C-alpha cells in the first residue's frame, strides 16, 4: 500500500485522527458492522463511469449470443471440459495453454496494478459495476438518497417501510435471477440454457439447482455482503501493498495543497489549505473511508470523491483537483507522474509470455496425435527384405467439426499397414485410436534407431507433423 501522507509537519501542525489505521471503515470499535448509506454521486467522472458501465454490461449480455461457425464466441464449459475463446476451441490436451495464459494474466495484473493501481476495481470489476451502477441506483430510486436511506433503516416498521423493502428486494431478486442465468450461459451456452428455462426442472435438476444457487449468491452479495466483497473477501485489494508503490496511479488527496484544513469563513483572508473540511468526499464514498487519510485498503478508486470535491471547489471558487488521479510521488515532488521502472520489467516478462502463447496458437493444428511403438513388440524382419515395427496411434480432434484424418509416412520409401481399418471419422472433441505396422526396406536402414516423420492431415487443414523411432537390426 502507498504510504499515507503524514501531516505532523504540515503548516499549522494539523494532527489527523489515526484511528482509521486500527480497523476497516465498515467495522466499529466493538466489532459490529457499520451499514453504509453513501450519498448519491454526480459529476463528470460519474458520467464517464456510467457510459463505460453501460458498454461493459451490454457486452456482457450480448457476448453469449454471438457465434462463429455455429459455436459460441466465448464458452467456459467446465462440465464438458471444453473452452471456447473467440471461436477457438480448447480441449483437455490444450490445458497447458490455459496454464500459460493464467501465468500471463497474473503478470498482467502485476503490471496493470503497478501502473494504474486499483483502476480495475472502480471501472470494470463486476462487483462494483452491479453494486454501484445497478443495485445502488435502484436503492436511490426506491429509498431515496443516502440520508433518506439511513433514516428509513433507523425508522420503526410501518406499512410504507415494508412496501419499500418488499419492492426493493423483489427487484434485487429479479436482477439476481437474470444475472445468474446470464453467468450460466457462459458455462453451458445459450442453447442449453434455453432448454433449462423451457423444460421442467425434472429434466435438468443439476442445472436448475445451479441457477437457484447462483441467484442466491448474487442476491446475498448485493443485499448483505455489498462493499464487504471488496474490503474483506476480495484478495486483490490486499495485494495492493506489494503491487503498488509511490509511482502507481491512484485517487489521492493533495495534502500539500489541502492542509491544514479548515472551515470556510466569509470576509477573511484564508491562510490555511484549500480543504474546507466539508466531508462531502466521505459522504459519497461507497466503502466509507476518508480519502484525506491517504491510500487505504478499502479504496476502490471509484472517483466519487473526486466529483464531490470538484463540485465544492467550484462552488467556493477554488481550483478543482484537490482530489484527483495522481501518484504519491507526484504529490510529494509536484512533478508529473512517471512510468514506474519495475513496470518495464513486468512488460518484458509479459511480452515473452504472450509471444510464446501467440506462437502456440499460430502453430496449433486441428489434431493432436500420439504415435508410439507398441510396448513389448520387437522389430520383425520379413522374407521380402523389409523390416516392420508395430505402433499404436491416437488422434484427438480439436475442432468443432467431424474430421477424417489420414496418416502418411514422409521422407522414406516405406508403407503403412493398418491392423483393421484406417483411422475413422472423428467427432468433435473425441479421438480415434488403433494399431499400424510401419514397413521399411532393410537396405534403407543404416543404424539401429531411425527417426521417422509422419503427417496427420485432414481435408483443407494444416497437417500435423509427428516423429517416432523405428528399430532395426544392427548393420
TrEMBL record:
The keyword Transmembrane applies. Gene3D superfamilies: 3.30.70.20, Immunoglobulins. Keywords: 4Fe-4S, Electron transport, Iron, Iron-sulfur, Membrane, Metal-binding, Transmembrane, Transmembrane helix, Transport. Pfam families: Fer4_18 (PF13746), Fer4_5 (PF12801), FixG_C (PF11614). One of its GO terms (cellular component) is plasma membrane. One of its GO terms (molecular function) is 4 iron, 4 sulfur cluster binding. Residues 262-294 form the 4Fe-4S ferredoxin-type domain. The chain crosses the membrane at residues 48-68, 95-116, 166-187, 207-225, 343-362. This is Cytochrome c oxidase accessory protein CcoG. It comes from Arsenicibacter rosenii. The lineage of its organism: Bacteria, Pseudomonadati, Bacteroidota, Cytophagia, Cytophagales.
Amino acid at each position: 500500500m502507498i504510504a499515507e501522507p503524514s501531516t505532523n509537519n504540515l503548516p499549522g501542525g494539523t494532527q489527523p485522527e489515526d484511528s482509521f489505521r486500527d480497523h476497516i471503515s465498515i467495522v466499529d470499535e466493538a466489532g459490529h458492522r457499520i451499514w453504509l448509506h453513501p450519498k448519491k454521486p454526480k459529476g463528470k467522472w460519474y458520467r464517464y463511469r456510467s457510459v463505460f458501465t453501460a458498454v461493459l454490461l451490454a457486452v456482457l449480455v450480448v457476448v453469449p449470443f454471438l457465434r462463429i461457425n455455429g459455436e459460441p464466441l466465448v464458452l467456459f464449459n467446465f462440465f464438458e471440459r471444453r473452452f471456447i475463446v473467440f471461436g477457438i476451441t480448447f480441449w483437455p490436451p490444450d490445458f497447458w495453454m490455459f496454464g500459460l495464459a493464467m501465468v500471463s494474466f497474473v503478470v498482467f495484473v502485476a503490471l496493470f496494478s503497478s501502473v494504474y493501481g486499483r483502476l480495475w476495481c472502480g471501472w470494470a470489476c463486476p462487483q462494483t459495476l452491479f453494486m454501484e451502477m445497478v443495485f445502488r441506483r435502484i436503492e436511490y430510486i426506491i429509498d431515496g438518497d443516502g440520508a433518506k436511506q439511513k433514516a428509513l433503516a433507523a425508522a420503526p416498521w410501518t406499512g410504507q417501510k415494508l412496501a419499500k423493502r418488499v419492492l426493493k428486494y423483489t427487484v434485487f431478486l429479479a436482477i439476481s435471477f437474470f444475472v445468474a442465468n446470464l453467468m450460466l450461459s457462459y458455462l453451458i451456452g445459450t442453447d442449453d440454457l434455453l432448454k433449462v428455462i423451457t423444460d421442467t426442472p425434472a429434466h435438468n435438476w443439476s442445472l436448475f439447482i445451479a441457477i437457484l444457487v447462483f441467484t442466491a449468491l448474487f442476491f446475498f452479495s448485493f443485499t448483505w455482503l455489498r462493499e464487504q466483497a471488496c474490503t474483506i473477501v476480495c484478495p486483490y485489494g490486499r495485494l495492493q501493498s506489494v503491487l503498488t508503490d509511490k509511482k502507481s496511479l491512484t485517487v489521492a488527496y493533495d495534502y500539500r495543497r489541502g492542509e491544514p484544513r479548515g472551515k470556510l469563513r466569509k470576509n477573511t483572508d484564508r491562510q490555511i489549505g484549500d480543504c474546507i473540511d466539508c466531508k462531502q468526499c466521505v459522504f459519497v464514498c461507497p466503502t466509507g473511508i476518508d480519502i484525506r487519510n491517504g491510500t487505504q485498503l478499502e479504496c476502490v478508486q471509484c472517483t466519487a470523491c473526486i466529483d464531490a470535491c470538484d463540485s465544492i471547489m467550484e462552488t467556493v471558487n477554488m481550483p478543482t483537483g484537490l482530489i484527483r488521479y495522481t501518484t504519491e510521488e507526484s504529490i510529494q515532488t509536484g512533478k508529473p507522474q512517471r512510468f514506474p521502472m519495475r513496470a518495464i520489467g513486468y512488460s518484458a516478462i509479459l511480452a515473452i509470455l504472450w509471444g510464446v502463447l501467440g506462437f502456440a496458437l499460430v502453430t496449433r493444428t486441428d489434431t493432436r496425435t500420439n504415435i508410439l511403438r507398441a510396448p513389448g513388440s520387437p522389430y520383425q524382419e520379413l522374407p521380402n527384405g523389409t523390416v516392420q515395427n508395430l505402433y499404436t496411434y491416437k488422434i484427438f480432434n480439436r475442432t468443432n467439426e467431424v474430421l477424417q484424418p489420414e496418416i502418411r509416412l514422409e521422407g522414406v520409401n516405406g508403407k503403412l499397414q493398418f491392423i483393421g481399418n484406417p483411422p475413422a471419422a472423428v467427432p468433435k472433441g473425441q479421438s480415434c485410436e488403433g494399431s499400424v505396422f510401419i514397413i521399411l526396406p532393410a537396405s534403407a536402414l543404416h543404424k539401429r534407431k531411425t527417426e521417422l516423420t509422419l503427417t496427420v492431415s485432414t481435408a483443407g487443414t494444416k497437417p500435423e507433423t509427428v516423429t517416432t523411432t523405428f528399430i532395426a537390426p544392427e548393420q
